[in-house]
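Weekly sync, protein design subgroup
Attendees: M.S., D.O., the rotation student, P.L. (late)

Item 1: inverse folding check
M.S. brought a backbone from last month's batch and wanted to see whether the design step gives back something sensible before we order anything. D.O. pointed out we never logged the input encoding, so this time it goes straight into the notes. Structure tokens as presented (363 positions):
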């Protein structure tokens, strides 16, 4: 029988707030939560977010085998500890526990925090939950970003010389070939173990250094981009780009320079420095401002979702119908958002940037 950690105080508090003193059920749900924390794949994160936000897009996906499999895994995790569990009759229970799983993932999975942030869509979607899920995700992104960008302490990368734990027995007059063979075999095993440990430490050091190099290159590329003040794609100064195009063009360019999720803490400041303003823009105008080829190239991932990546989903729908208005009704039905709703240019750029990381930059 699997051994589970003690129930956390935050989960106990959230569950009691919603379901009073159902201790036995609460304990079952805690075990479900712990089971779902193992191997949190991208489709699982998507399903958890859809359930936590109760999105218009169904959690099981629409003819999407990966999402359906992840949804069935979530349902089975409940039934493993509560055979009578029925998602249709326990929708609120389903929602709260899935939200709690996401909160637990925030500590080491940037994708989970990113997905919650992008699904919230700058406050347009507000999940009804006992915890402030969106605020917790935002705080987690700051903490994760700060942790990812910490400078490596070189002293921790020093590798000590390995030691071989072996002693050969003293030779005796009656020592035979078999005994020596056993001694040599033991020596080989000891050397193999020492070398294996050395290789493990060397690989860890190499990984840390490569990560630091990638982050340094990322920071340098962003710095030169900002100092140059020029779009690499359009070959135009930031200020010469039409205001309605800036959120997508500049948000994507910054996203393509990001190699380690969830990107720098200062992304909002960088986008503001690039010229993104607090002026309000209609989402439909922003999506329609780019050409069809650009829209198609920017929405080439199968993981694009009406829940977690609504702007990319709008670009996908627009490129499918090759129209500036025919995409809007279907998009609104699946996202629950308004295509004519307004957001600041800065919020739109940061939203598009976060969506890009969720789709293209692995944890």
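Designed sequence read out in the meeting:
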């Amino acid at each position: 029988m699997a051994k589970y950690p003690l129930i956390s105080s935050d989960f106990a508090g959230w569950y009691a707030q919603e379901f009073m003193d159902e201790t036995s059920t609460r304990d079952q749900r805690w075990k479900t939560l712990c089971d779902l924390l193992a191997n949190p794949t991208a489709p699982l994160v998507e399903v958890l977010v859809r359930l936590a936000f109760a999105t218009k897009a169904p959690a099981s996906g629409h003819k999407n085998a990966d999402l359906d499999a992840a949804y069935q895994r979530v349902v089975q995790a409940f039934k493993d500890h509560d055979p009578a569990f029925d998602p249709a009759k326990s929708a609120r229970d389903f929602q709260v526990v899935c939200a709690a799983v996401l909160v637990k993932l925030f500590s080491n999975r940037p994708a989970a925090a990113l997905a919650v942030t992008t699904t919230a869509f700058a406050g347009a979607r507000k999940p009804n939950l006992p915890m402030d899920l969106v605020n917790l995700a935002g705080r987690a992104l700051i903490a994760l970003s700060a942790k990812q960008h910490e400078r490596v302490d070189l002293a921790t990368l020093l590798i000590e010389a390995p030691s071989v734990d072996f002693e050969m027995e003293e030779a005796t007059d009656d020592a035979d070939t078999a005994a020596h063979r056993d001694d040599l075999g033991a020596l080989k095993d000891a050397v193999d173990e020492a070398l294996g440990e050395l290789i493990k430490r060397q690989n860890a050091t190499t990984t840390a250094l490569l990560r630091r190099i990638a982050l340094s290159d990322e920071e340098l590329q962003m710095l030169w981009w900002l100092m140059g003040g020029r779009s690499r794609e359009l070959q135009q100064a930031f200020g010469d780009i039409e205001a309605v195009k800036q959120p997508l063009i500049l948000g994507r360019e910054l996203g393509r320079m990001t190699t380690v999720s969830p990107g720098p803490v200062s992304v909002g400041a960088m986008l503001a420095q690039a010229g993104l303003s607090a002026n309000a823009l209609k989402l439909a105008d922003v999506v329609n401002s780019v050409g069809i080829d650009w829209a198609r190239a920017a929405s080439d991932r199968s993981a694009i979702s009406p829940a977690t990546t609504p702007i990319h989903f709008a670009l996908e729908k627009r490129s499918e119908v090759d129209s500036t208005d025919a995409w809007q009704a279907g998009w609104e039905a699946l996202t629950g958002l308004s295509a004519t709703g307004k957001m600041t240019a800065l919020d739109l750029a940061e939203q598009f940037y976060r969506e890009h990381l969720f789709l293209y930059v692995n944890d």
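Discussion: The mean pLDDT is 90. Residues 9-148 form one domain.
Action: P.L. to compare against the previous round before Friday.
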